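>> Question from a student workshop board

For tomorrow's exercise we were told to take the sequence and the ligand below, predict the bound structure, and bring the output to class. My setup keeps failing. Could a helper post the expected result so I can at least see what it should look like? The ligand is DQA.
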Amino acid sequence: AQLLLLHGPNLNLLGTREPTLYGATTLEQINHRLVTQAQQAGHTLTTLQSNYEGVLIDRIQATAQDGTDFLIINPAAFTHTSVALRDAILAVKLPFIEVHLSNVHARESFRHHSYFSDIAIGVICGLGAQGYDFALQYAIHHFSNR
Ligand code: DQA
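>> Workshop helper replied:
Here is what the output should look like for this input. Compare the format with yours to find the bug.
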C-alpha cells in the first residue's frame, strides 16, 4: 500500500522544541524509521512536514490522484483550529490515524478539542515518537489482511 505521513507546524523543530513535552527524537529520525519499517513490510511511505496549512491541504487533495491508501497525520496546532484540513481529508475520503506526541488531554483545555478525532480511525496521543510506530503497525496489519 501507499502510505502518507504528514506533520503539521513546528514539528520540524522536534528534538530541540520543548523536549520534556515532545522528546529528543528529531523529525528526520522519525521519518527515516517509518520509511524503513514500511519498506520492510512491503509498503511505501512518503512524508511531508509543513508550517503552512495550504501546503498540507494541497498534499491531501493530491492523494485523490496519486494512489495514496492511508494517512498518518500529526496536525500539530492545526488539530485545534483547522476546519479546512478536516474538510480536505473528508473530500478525498482518506482513512487516517491522528497522532500526537504529547497527551493533549493532560494539557491546556484548548488542546482538548480536535477537528480530526471524530473522523479518524483512531487517535494515539501521549506515547511520544513511538505513537507513529504504532500507527504504522496498524496500517501494515490492515493492508496485509485484505
Ligand atoms: C501536538 C500537540 C498540539 O497541541 C501542539 O500544538 C503541537 C504538537 C503533539 O504532537 O503533541 O504542535 O500535536
